[in-house]
UniProtKB/TrEMBL annotation:
Protein name per UniProt: Ribonuclease J
Protein origin, superkingdom: Bacteria
Keywords: Exonuclease, Hydrolase, Metal-binding, Nuclease, RNA-binding, Zinc
Keyword Coiled coil attached: no
Keyword presence, Iron-sulfur: no
Domain Metallo-beta-lactamase positions: 1-199
Species of the source: Marinomonas colpomeniae
Length: 427
């Protein structure tokens, strides 16, 4: 879950406002809450100083808490068209559709938000319209990466452009806040196009139903599976509200190819087994999601038989291992085949985050004075700091939740200055 605050001259700018799922509210708590977000008390108690909220992209861990928390902030929200469409659909569900001022911005556009000048820079990730940004104040310019990877062959959008980031080296970037998710992984992340080729290679020879579990927000993966369906003589159906909603947002903003048809999930039962390709929710073993209902035999739209294939085209999020493996065993007990990433050398899932070589490249292009690793567990932040140091970034500030990073006029971390924690949000 992400909630970043940048402060200058008595004002604050929030970047992202996300949720996490099935997490404890305290580190050693054995009980979990279904939907969790960062405790916003620090900024909600001074909301008159909050100039605006910027959302980098539409993943739940960046935008999911905003509909529930906006009444505590009551300020404008800035984001790009696809994320705005996803956000508006969420706001409708909580009765805020006409209350929240959502300002849509474009690539390379600059907006003055209070004392901050924010410029959006497109990059590549696993969802449409992921954006980094520069945040400029009179005392320095910050570069906030958001979530990213270097993908030269993305399924959606243009390939990663190094030129637009190497230009930042001439802009004297004071500090770079950088995604640390894969800082412990050497090498380079794998392209979404390679994942498409892997899924095609696996599904093409199949003679039975194929079900793919993946993250609903990974529109590129859904488009790839649509192409696989076309090339293998199958019909693509989506089962799960979040999947249907995300594709609806993609269609509304021009990110879903017009030549990729979808069928109504209710029609799958009338098709020969070899013509069914279903994409479903529940890749993390969520108890109420479609994969669990399929395993229990109570999915209204689809029933699986022995020798059908279930592909897990998603990472196994730490903490979900037991739930996922219970799901796999349920399928195996019915002689339904399963395929997880560890079962094959083919990249049936690829990460949307940068590995070590990509981190080095971006630090070298941008040449910030200070590196501030974000988005990861402590070991990821430490590893990212080491990568920055090896990439000749003069200073690295590695902190924790609740620390205040002072970037100008002096440079230091003030430890545990803000009381932070987690709160539960009801769905």
């Amino acid at each position: 879950m992400n909630m970043n605050l940048y402060g200058h001259d008595g004002q604050w700018l929030m970047v992202d406002c996300g949720v996490s799922f099935n997490e404890p509210l305290k580190p050693d708590d054995l009980h979990t809450a279904e939907v969790v977000c960062a405790d916003p008390r620090f900024i909600s108690e001074q909301k008159e100083r909050l100039a605006g909220i910027v959302i980098t992209h539409a993943h739940e861990d960046h935008v999911g808490a905003l509909p529930a928390l906006w009444r505590r902030f009551k300020c404008p929200v800035y984001t790009t068209a696809f994320t705005a469409e996803v956000l508006r659909r969420k706001l409708v569900q909580v009765g805020l559709a006409d209350e929240v001022p959502v300002i849509v911005v474009k690539d390379n556009e600059t907006k003055k938000i209070g004392v901050f000048n924010v410029t959006w820079l497109s990059l590549t990730h696993s969802i449409p319209e992921p954006f980094a940004m520069t945040i400029e104040t009179p005392v320095g310019k910050i570069f906030h990466t958001g979530d990213w990877k270097i993908d030269k062959k993305p399924i959606i959008g243009e390939g990663f452009s190094s030129a637009r980031f190497s230009v930042l080296a001439k802009e004297n970037i004071l500090a770079m806040m950088c995604d640390s998710t894969n800082a412990l992984r050497d090498g380079h992340s794998v392209s979404e196009s390679d994942c498409y080729e892997a899924l095609l290679a696996i599904i093409a020879p199949e003679k039975n139903r194929v079900v793919v579990g993946c993250f609903s927000s990974n529109v590129a993966r859904l488009v790839a599976l649509g192409r696989v369906a076309q090339e293998t003589g199958r019909y693509l159906a989506l089962v799960g509200r979040s999947l249907i909603n995300m594709v609806g947002a993609a269609k509304a903003t021009g990110h879903w190819p017009s030549d990729l048809p979808l069928i109504d999930a209710a029609h799958m039962g009338y098709l020969p087994r070899e013509e069914v390709l279903a994409v479903v929710t529940g890749s993390q073993g969520e108890p109420r999601a479609t994969l669990n209902r399929l395993a229990a035999g109570n999915c209204f739209d689809l029933t699986l038989n022995s020798d059908d294939l279930v592909i897990f085209s998603a990472m196994m999020i730490p903490g979900n291992e037991d739930a996922i493996m219970r799901l796999v065993e349920q399928f195996k007990g019915q002689k339904i085949r399963t395929l997880q990433q560890q079962d094959t050398e083919l990249p049936i899932h690829v990460s949307g985050h940068p590995c070590v070589d990509e981190l080095k490249q971006l630090y070298t292009w941008v040449q910030p004075q200070i590196a501030v690793p974000v988005h990861g567990e402590p070991e990821h932040l430490i590893a990212n700091g080491k990568v920055a140091k090896s990439s000749h970034v003069p200073q690295q500030l590695v902190g924790r939740n609740g620390d205040i990073y002072e970037l100008a006029p002096s440079v230091k971390i003030r430890r545990k200055q803000v009381s932070v924690g987690r709160i539960s949000l009801s769905r």
